[in-house]
Structures are given as C-alpha cells and as structure tokens.
Here is the input.
Amino acid sequence: MPDKLEQFGKRVISGQVGGPIGATLRGLLRCAEPVYAKIMSSRNAAYDSGKKVSQSLGRPTISIGNITTGGTGKTPMVRWLGQQLINAGIRPAVLMRGYRSTKESGSDEQMMLQQFLGGGASGGGAVIEANPDRVAGAIAGRAAAPDVGAFILDDGFQHRRVKRDLDIVLISAIEPFGYGHVFPRGLMREPLEGLRRANAVVITHARRVSGEQLDAIETQLRKYYPVGPIYHADHVPTGFRTPKTTAAMPVDAYDDALRDEPILAFSGLGEPRVFKEQLMSMGARILAAEWFKDHHAYTAYDLERLYERAEAVGAKYLVTTEKDWVKLKSLPRPIDGPAIWRLDVHIRFWWSDEAMLLEQVMNAIESRGK
Here is the structure.
C-alpha cells in the first residue's frame, strides 16, 4: 500500500492525475508549500549569516547532492568519485545518511558501495559510514581508518551542519526542477535560490533530452547559478551480473546478452523510467514491470509474487539493479525459477568534463591542505 500511495502522490504533483480530484489535491499541497519553503530559506539564511556555523570534519570534504528528491543518480556519482580518489592514492570515507538502514546490514546504498569500493577499515578501499549524524559518522570513520584522506558527503547539499570544500549538485535532465515546486507540492527540497551555494553542477541523463531542452535547463540554472561550471553526464549500462557474480567482480554478461529475451523488470528507484529505458536500449523484451518505492525493503512475499508474475507472463529472466539485489539476494528463491540478473551502470561524462571535474575536486582537496 505505501508503494502505491507514493506513486499516486507523484502522479498528483506531476499533473498526471487530472480532473477535480487532482486539482483539489494539488491545491491542498500548494497551501503547505510556502511553509516548507520558508523553513528551508530561513535555515539557509541562518547559515549564510553566521548565526549557525558549519562544522569542519578535519579532512577535505566533497559533497554530492541534489536539489530535488530522488532520481538524479547520486550513487553512481559517489562510486565514480570514490574510485577516482582511490586511484589518486587518497583513501576516502563516504558519509551516508543511511536511509532505511538496518542494524544487521545497513542501507542499500551502503552495502552496494562497500562492494564497489572495497569498503572496510582494513580493506584498503573506501570506508563507508551510514549515520544521520554525519559528524559522528566522520569521527567513526577516522577511528576505524586513521589514514582517511578525504570525506565524500553523500546526499549532503542540504546537510549544512557539515562544512564542505566543494559542493557538487546533480540535476536530472529528465525532471530537473521537481515539477517547478518545493515539497510537498513538488519534488524540490528547497527553493532554487539554494543553487547559489553550489561549486559545480552536473546535469545527469543529459542525452535523454533534446539539445533544445538541455539549453532550456542550463538557461534556468544560470538564473540561480550564474558563473560556476556545468558538466554533463549519462548513466551508461555496461552489462549484467548473474547470481553467481558479486558486485565487486566485473560483469559476466555483456550488454547484448538479453537481446530479444523475455524479461520481467523490477526495482525500487527514485526514477524507474531510466532503468526501463536502459533495458529497452539493450534489446530486452520487457513483458512486465514491477516498480517499488525508493529504498524498498524486499520481503520473501515480494519475491514470491515477482516469480509468480514472471511465470504468468512467460519471462525467462528477472532483471533488477545492484541497489535492489543487495536487499533481496539472501531471500529464498525457487531452485527452478528464472535467474535474477542485475544491470551494471557507470556514470560517463561528456567530452573533457570528467577531467575538468576531477581537476576541480583535486584543487579543492589540495587547497584545504595548504
């Protein structure tokens, strides 16, 4: 039921629910919008004026965030930045909020990044800390691995309690400005004026819109973010992992492995449209799809229902994401049921944007050390 309510709410604010019901609900949400916007603006003003003070974490800190809820592709961006720092000999600690985490396993993004970046105090890779109190998370990260050289603040744009050396904001080209409204009427976490705090903006899913649409997005951005660099990137599928392959291993099925194959797609993502389009671009025949709410905690019943639907429609494979797989891989699955494959996605920048953004990151880290 919560999944269906969340999906219905998004259809309301996007305008897909029309008629008197849709108009009435949007009107009610619009009444609450100024209250939330005022709270966020007042909070930002307190930090801007110095009434509230951001706390240094004692290491260079790079924030990756957004101005809307969900769907911008933060986790692949955190994965990219973490790997770049590791390649440069800088051990990163990723500080996450740990949304919907559990004491036993942590959050879905935490588990996934631990596999991708070799997380662990003794593993030599990134340290992944999930704690709503990012300052406490930083202290824990440094205690576990004193050689941490930089912090990556995941989903940190609105987390102003922590001082950062570089603020990277992701904007999805598919729905860049949260239907033009602040929560709860739209998906924006704060008014667009907040973009003035950004040091870099990355437009993600940039090739999924026309050149004219991209120009319009940049024109709108420049009203609130007048001089900083704007980079462009896409989330590119590289292939699939089968059940026998962990996220730490390369893909074992290439991008055309499911061409013309009948599949059931499912995921719990902020923006499932992108996942569906990626599968279609790889030639898979999607016979059915099941979309759960973002960060959905899978149960044995969910998996049983997915297998039943796959059998009913004649799907040969079930296909999901690594983010979903970390939460369902331990659930019981029928021995003779269809295999669950996971799509692997990397962030890929346009032209020289990757080198330019990495240079900006390293300059921020070096400036902090002077």
